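Re: beginner question about structure tokens

> Can someone show what the tokenized structure looks like for a real chain? I only ever see the sequence side.

Sure, here's an example I had lying around. Input first:
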Amino acid sequence: MINKSTLKFLKDLSANNNREWFAQHKTAYEAAKADAEHLATQLAAGIAQFDKSIGYLEPKDCMFRIYRDTRFSHDKVPYKTNLGVVLQRGGKKTQFACYYVHIEPGNLFLSGGIYMPSPEALKALRQAIDVNFEEFEKIIKNKTFGKYFDLEGDSKLNRVPQGFDKESPAAEYLKWKSWYVTSSITATEICSSDFVVQTLQKFKALHPLVKFFNEAIEDIA
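And the corresponding structure tokens:
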């Protein structure tokens, strides 16, 4: 679970996104960070029970910095107004598919899958979907999976990419550059004592898709 104080800090940060305010509330930030790290530890241990490839992950392997890189951005706001917990094989710097929790007041959600992979990984993923489409379709049409998620994609091409048959039954999925799921959650849910249990249940349903993607890029990620 996430403490209500963490959501309050993020909401207040959104309204006061400047270095002076942040410095004055550094203690509240550290508490919010520790709260999210505790959630990461609990989820990593739980996911490892059904996804052995996760292995042992420390909170630093799962958390993003709150400081924005503004060097090449017109938006000079210094801080992110969310905390993200990403759980994936080898930690957040790999290309492997992930399980993700987004903590942001007004925009709370669970997610997972693979987002904007490298060109080499993208080609391997498309090949896996094309060649093993029956298996892929079985995963995304599974009743338990469908209870929690719908597969989404973005940066969709107008045509099937070169090298693939436009008549392939997987044609529409081959046009995508990312394959992921999202599931909105409420503040009440994320602050509930059974949030970890409920989230692990959803992530377990997501595991077959994560496994499919990771096997496709085993030698690349």
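Each token stands for a local structural state, so reading them left to right follows the chain. DSSP finds ten helices and four strands in the chain.
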